[in-house]
Amino acid sequence: MSLKRSTVQQLLASQELDREVLVKGWVRTRRGNKYVQFIALNDGSVLHNIQVVAAAENFPEENLKDVATGACLAVRGTLVASQGKGQSVEIQASEITVLGKADPETYPLQKKGHSLEFLREIAHLRPRTNTFGAVLRVRHALAFAVHKYYNDNGFFYVHTPIITGSDAEGAGQMFRVTTLPADNPPRTETGEVDYAQDFFGKATNLTVSGQLEGELAALALGKIYTFGPTFRAENSNTARHLAEFWMIEPEVAFNELEENMDLAEDFLKYLVRYALDNCADDLAFLNEHYDKELLARLRFVVDNDFQRLTYTEAVDVLKGARQKFEFPVDWGTDLQSEHERYLVEKHFKKPVILTNYPKEIKAFYMKLDDDGRTVRAMDVLFPGIGEIIGGSQREEDLEKLLARMAEMHVPAEELSWFLDTRRFGSAPHAGFGLGFERLVLFVTGMANIRDVIPFPRFPKNAEF
Amino acid sequence: MSLKRSTVQQLLASQELDREVLVKGWVRTRRGNKYVQFIALNDGSVLHNIQVVAAAENFPEENLKDVATGACLAVRGTLVASQGKGQSVEIQASEITVLGKADPETYPLQKKGHSLEFLREIAHLRPRTNTFGAVLRVRHALAFAVHKYYNDNGFFYVHTPIITGSDAEGAGQMFRVTTLPADNPPRTETGEVDYAQDFFGKATNLTVSGQLEGELAALALGKIYTFGPTFRAENSNTARHLAEFWMIEPEVAFNELEENMDLAEDFLKYLVRYALDNCADDLAFLNEHYDKELLARLRFVVDNDFQRLTYTEAVDVLKGARQKFEFPVDWGTDLQSEHERYLVEKHFKKPVILTNYPKEIKAFYMKLDDDGRTVRAMDVLFPGIGEIIGGSQREEDLEKLLARMAEMHVPAEELSWFLDTRRFGSAPHAGFGLGFERLVLFVTGMANIRDVIPFPRFPKNAEF
C-alpha cells in the first residue's frame, strides 16, 4: 500500500495519533543507548525536528551505521504521544531507509555549533542549519506579506527592467552588462569602444532602482509596486551593504508626502505583524539565540506611532543633545548614522520619519517645497538599522523638474521618456524604496546582511 | 471638508448613490453638445471608465478647454444612476480641476486605435491604453497567484542569485557583468584580461536559471520556488523570445517524475482559474478585441486532464500522422514546434506532457532512466505556445551525475558546491521552470511576447 508522505510540520501539529506515517528528512542528531536510538529528523518545513525512536531489537546497529548527522532518511512508523521532554509526538520506527549518506569524516555540518563566519563560506549548505532555516522561512513570509499587502490594497505589481540604459538616481556606481569581447572589443573609427555593436546597440547597466519606470506605470495604473533585484557596484565591505539586493518600490498617483508617510508606516507595521503572527517558532528561536530583545522590539514597532518631524526640527534636537557626536551637525549636511541612531534609540525611542530635507542632499526628482530650500523627502529610521525606507513626493511640474535636472547635471535628453509623464497628464505622486534585506535584518535580529540572503554578492565574492 | 478620493473601481461597484464623491484620473475621451459634455475618466484601477457629466450651464467651454484626451483631472460631483447605456453610475460634476494638461497636438495617444507595433515604440505610455492596462492587470494577478499557490502549499520563496559565476544549463549565451574599463581593461602578465581585478574577483554573468541554487535550498527546506529575472544573450528576434524575462522554478525534495507532473498540471490550472476568477473584465476585453477563442481556451485548460505520454510514444504518433512535416521525425531528434503543435492542437486537442526524452537532447542533471537511453524529463506543451514548462526529476546519484557531466563536458570542479548536495544526504527531487511571460502570453491571448512585459529587452533594444 502506498502511504503518502507527511511533513514534520504536519506531524507535529497532528492530533491524530497511533496511525502509520511516512516521513522523509535529514538527520540532525542521533543519540541513544544499547536498547534504543533517538534520531532527530528535520525536513525544513518547520524549525523543530521530529523524534524517531528506533528500538535496538528491531534495528541492530549494523542497520543504522549510515544514520549519521546530515544523512537523508525515509522513515515509516507509528505516530505516538511522546514520553520525552520537548515534543508532544514522536515516531516509533518500523522501517528506516537511508536515501543519501553523509560521511561524518567530511560532512561540514556536524552537530556542534558553527560560527556565522564559517557558515558564510559554506552558504550552499547553511540552509540546513536551524539558524538559516529560520531566517529563510522568515524571509519567505515577509516576501509573501509584501505581495499580499499590495494586492489586498489594490496595487499592481510591475516588473521594471533589470538591464537599463539609464541611471535613475543620477548617482550610484553601476555594473556594465555586455556581450562584447572583453579582450578585444570592436572600435569606432576614432578608436573608442563601439557600443553600437553591443547586444542592445548601446552601453547598458544593471538597474539601481525601478523608480522612474515605476512612476510611468503609476501614472497609468494608479497604484503600483516593484519587487526585484537592484545592484550597486560599490566597494563597500560592511555588514549593511550588498552588491545585489532586492528592493520594493511602491508608487502612487495622487499621493502627497503625508499619504506617503501613512503608507510607509502602515506597510512596515503590517509586515512586522505578519511575521509575528506567522513565524512564531522561528522568531522565538532567533530571539533566544541571537537577540534577546528581538520580539520586544518587533512588538514595539507594531504598537507605537512613528515619530514624524522635519529635518530642520531634527537638527535642532541634535544640536541640543548632550551627547558628543563624531561628526558635527549643521543645517544642510547629511545626517550620519550616529545622528540617526541618537534620534531613534535615545531621544524618541521609537521609529522616526524625517521629512523635508535640504534639496542639495537629495535626488533631482523630489518635489521642491514652497520655500525653495527643502524637498518633500522622507526617510524612515529604525532602531539598529538606520534608514530602512527612503522616499519622497515627486516633482510633477515639468519646468521645475527641468530646472532641478539642469542644476544637478542630469541629462534631460536621455530621460525624455521619463519627462513625458510631466508633459502629458502629470499628477502629484509619491513613493518610496524599502531594501528588502534591511527589513529581513530587522525582523530576524541578525547582525550581518550577508546572513539574510541565500547567496550574498559583495566585493570579490560571487560564489555558488 | 476633506473628501477622500475614491477609485473608479470603487465607484463602479458602489451601491451607495446620490452622495458626493472625489475621483482623479486621466481623460480617455470627451464628447458632447452645447448643453452637456461627457468625459470618460480612467484611473487604471479597472478597465472601465467612469462617465463624468458636465452641464454647460456650470462649465462654460473656456473652463473645459484643457479637458482633452490624456489630461489628468480631479473631479468632484454627485454619484448618480446613469441614464446612458454601458454604465450603471456616473458623476454629475460640480468641480473639475485639471491637474496636468496633454496637448492634443503632441500627445501620442489620441482616441483612435493604435497598432501594437506603434505602441511598442512608446512603451512608456502604453500602460495608459485599454489593452496594456488589461495585460498589466492580468500580469499582476498571475504573479500574485504564483506566490499565493506556493505559499498556501508550504513552499518557501528563495531568491537565487542574479549575478553568477556559473552557467546552470551548460549552454545558453550569457551576458557578462563587469566593472572593468571596457576601453583598456587590466591585463595579466601573459596579456589576458585580468578578471581577478574585476568587482567579484572573477568573470561573472547574468543567470540563465536559478535551478542549481534552488536544488540546494530544496534539499534543506523541502519545497521551494524561485521567481526572478533570467537572461539569454541570444540574437533571437522572434515573437517568443526576450533577452530578459521572469521565470518561476519550483523544486521539491522527494518528488519523482509523476509528482512533478502532478504539480505542474495543478499549478497551471490554478493560475488559469485564478485569472478567470479575478480578471473577468480584462479577459473579456482581450477576448473581444484580440482572440475570440481566448476564454474558451482558458476554460478548456482548467476543465481537462493534460495528456501524458512518453517521447517515444509521441514519435510513434507523429510517424503515423497523415500530415507532412517540414522536419522529419526520428527517435533521438528534438521535436520541432510543428510537431508539438500537431500533438497539442490536432491529435490530442489538449495540453500535453511529454516525458522520458533521449538523454542526448536534454541537460546533464536529469535522472537517467533504467534503460540508460532516456532521462526523466518532462515538457508541458500548450496550444498556441508550445513548451510552457520544462522540467525533470534530477539525478540524485553522485556517480551517475559525474559520469553524465563528463560525457557532456560540464566541468565538475566548478560545480563542486552543487555536487555537495549529492555527497551529503542526497535525495530524489524534481522541479521545473515556467517562463512567466509565456504564461501571460497564453492567458491574455496576445501574440507577441514583447507586449506582455512592461519594458521588453531584445537585440538592439533597451529603451526606457
UniProtKB/TrEMBL annotation, chains A, B:
Keyword Magnesium annotated: no
| Catalysis: reaction(s) | tRNA(Asn) + L-asparagine + ATP = L-asparaginyl-tRNA(Asn) + AMP + diphosphate + H(+)
| Listed EC numbers | 6.1.1.22
Q: What are the residue boundaries of the Aminoacyl-transfer RNA synthetases class-II family profile domain, all occurrences included? A: 136-454
- UniProtKB keywords: Aminoacyl-tRNA synthetase, ATP-binding, Cytoplasm, Ligase, Nucleotide-binding, Protein biosynthesis
Per its UniProt record, what InterPro entries does this chain match?
Aa-tRNA-synt_II (IPR004364), aa-tRNA-synth_II (IPR006195), aa-tRNA-synth_II/BPL/LPL (IPR045864), Asn-tRNA-ligase (IPR004522), Asp/Asn-tRNA-synth_IIb (IPR002312), NA-bd_OB-fold (IPR012340), NA-bd_OB_tRNA (IPR004365)
The record's section on Pfam families has: tRNA-synt_2, tRNA_anti-codon
Q: Where does it primarily localize? A: cytoplasm
Keyword hit for Nucleotide-binding: yes
* Compartment annotation: Cytoplasm
Note the subunit structure: Homodimer.
Query: Which family does the entry's similarity section mention?
Result: Belongs to the class-II aminoacyl-tRNA synthetase family.
Protein name per UniProt: Asparagine--tRNA ligase
Gene that specifies this protein: asnS
